[in-house]
Structure formats: structure tokens, C-alpha cells
Amino acid sequence: SAKQAGKNALRFFEASMNAELDAQQDLERQLHRAVERGEFELNYQPQFDLQTGELRAFEALLRWQHPRLGPVPPTRFIPVAEEGGMIVPIGCWVIDQACAQLRRWQDAGLQVRLAVNIAPLQFAHGDFVSSVEAALARYGLEGSFLELELNESALMTDLEASARQLAALRALGVSVAVDDFGTGYSSLAYLERLPVNTLKIDRLFVDAMRNNQGTLVASIIALAHAMKLQVVAEGIEGADQLEALRRIGCDLGQGYHLALPLRADEATAGLLERAPVSG
Ligand code: C2E
Ligand code: MG
Ligand code: MG
Ligand code: MG
């Protein structure tokens, strides 16, 4: 009967909810031990100057290789780490590793900027700026080699607190990028009140360029440039998008069409191949 079918559907729904909850709690337990067990690794996706083609920077992207589950994508475990608060120690590990890698590159004579993703909870944490300062000091790095990527919700939740934090980071020489711009709750008007350096246009808009000739992206770039912001396009997957972005004056770009996220040794090889800058 329909009634019986409804009951079965409900039972099935409850069972899958419980399974989901168990999976969530299990993942949270696993995350607690992942740092100590050395299951995390950073990958590095190149960012290229779209006008000259030069490799300019990398974005550090966290990878988790679970011994039983295999690779767990960040879109799966970052939200869990944020809910349970584990993102704070994990984020500290990421910053430490990013600085360690910058140190190795500088020791090899390779000067490059590295962008690191920062979760909203991590940014809101009272010790955040001093932990960044400590990591720079630990590896004897100038802040200017580090860029921190914050999304709109991290920046907009408390505009005044954000402004203070960003000013403190800028005093260290660290630059700040707005990640996934256009997907969250912000506007360029709000951003004008925050000392950010870079706008990262979300992949969603880069995808949409296939259908709309890029007028929207072109106006974002024009406004960002008027505000003295550098623009990075995310998720460039095709030659057509690359060409359009170049034409409308986008500064930097990253995406599978240009380069995948790389292991540290591959990223180093990319830097070694890089044509020396003239002048
Ligand atoms: P995000 O910061 O916006 O990073 C860009 C994501 O797009 C990365 O996914 C990257 O691998 C992917 N991507 C790059 N090029 C392309 C492309 O051409 N096409 C498509 N479809 N995707 C592309 P990933 O590595 O899976 O990371 C997902 C998200 O997880 C990141 O988005 C970021 O929000 C978060 N995340 C990654 N690493 C960290 C970290 O160390 N800390 C924190 N808090 N979040 C992180
Ligand atoms: Mg990012
Ligand atoms: Mg992004
Ligand atoms: Mg994104």
C-alpha cells in the first residue's frame, strides 16, 4: 500500500541519515589524528601572468590521503573540520608547511609568492595574526611572499574586526585575496573599506563566459582595477576562456587548462624551467 511504502521510505531516510551522521563523526575522529600521522600534504597550483605567460605564484591546496578511505577531497573534509573546530590546528599546519616550502624555494634561489586558503573560523580566531607572524619568523621569511585567501563570508561577517586583522597582516607585508568572489555575500562597495590586494573571480563566472562573451567578468575587472586590485581568474578550463580573459585585461589566471595542482617536486621543476625575468 501507499502507506506502507511511505513508512519504508521514511525508515530508509532515517537509516541513511544515521549512516551520514556516523560517517561525519567517523571523519571527524580521523581528522583528529591525520595531522600527527602525516596524512596531509600540500599541492601547488600555478598562477600565470595572463599578459606575459610568466609563472607568478602558486596556490597551496590541501590534500588528505587517508590510509583506508584513500584520497578525501577538501570539499568533503574542510566543512567537517570547520564544524568541529579542527580547522584551526589543521590551518596552522598548512601555514607552517607553506612557509617551510617557501623557505626551501628561497634557499634554492627561487622567488615566488604562495597563496594559502584560510577558513572563516581560523581568521576569526584571536591568535590568527600572531600565528602567521610566528610562522614567518620561524622560517625567516618576508611577509610579501605570502598571500592569504579569504572568502567573502570570512571578511564580511564582522567588517570592523576584519579591517583590523587585515591591517595587521598588511603591516607584516602579507597580501590578502578575496577568494571565490561573486559567489558570496559581498559587493565591491564593501570591499573598498577593506585593505585587500587581490580579487579571485570564481570559476562560476569564468564558466559562464562561454555564453555571455565575458561582459560581466569584464566589468568586474574594470571595477577591481579602478580600486587598484589585482584580478585572478579561477578555473580556466579552455583556450577560448583564456583568450577572452587575456583580451579583457585579467592579470593572472589558474585552471586545469594552464596547470593542475602539482606535488612540491613538480612545482619546483616548474620554477626551475621558468624563463628568467629580464631587466
Ligand atoms: P578554492 O580555494 O577556490 O580552490 C580552487 C579549487 O578549484 C581547488 O579545488 C582546485 O583544485 C580547483 N581547480 C583549479 N583549477 C580548476 C579548473 O580548471 N576546473 C575546476 N573544476 N576546478 C579547478 P580543491 O583543491 O578540491 O579545493 C577545494 C576548496 O577547498 C578550495 O577552493 C578551498 O576553499 C578549500 N581548501 C583547499 N585547501 C585548503 C586549505 O589548506 N585550507 C582551507 N581552509 N581550505 C582549503
Ligand atoms: Mg583559494
Ligand atoms: Mg577559489
Ligand atoms: Mg572556488
First-to-last CA distance = 81 Å
**Rg result:** 21 Å
Strand content: 15-25%
| Number of DSSP strand runs | 9
Structural class: alpha/beta
Number of helices: 12
> What small molecules accompany the polymer chains?
ligand C2E, magnesium ion
Widest sheet: strand ordering: 1-2-4-5-6-7-8-9
Mean pLDDT, to the nearest integer, reads 92
Low-confidence stretches: none
Strand/helix succession: HEEEHHEHHEHHEHEHHEHEH
What share of residues is helical? Answer: 40-55%
Largest sheet: 8 strands, mixed, barrel
What overall geometry do the principal axes of the alpha carbons give?
globular
How does this structure look, described?
The structure is a single chain. This protein has helices at residues 2-34, 74-84, 87-107, 120-124, 128-138, 152-156, 159-171, 188-191, 203-212, 215-226, 239-247, 264-273, and strands at residues 40-49, 55-66, 70-72, 113-117, 146-151, 175-181, 198-201, 230-233, 252-253. It is α/β, with parallel strands linked by helices. It is globular and about 65 Å long. The model has no long low-confidence stretch (mean pLDDT 92). Bound molecules: ligand C2E and magnesium ion (3 copies). The site of ligand C2E has 24 residues, from strand 2, helix 2, helix 3 and strand 6. Residues 45, 61-62, 73-75, 78, 91, 94, 117-119, 149, 179-180, 203, 234-237, 254-256, 261 line the site of ligand C2E. Keywords: Membrane, Transmembrane, Transmembrane helix. This is Diguanylate cyclase (GGDEF)-like protein/PAS domain S-box-containing protein.
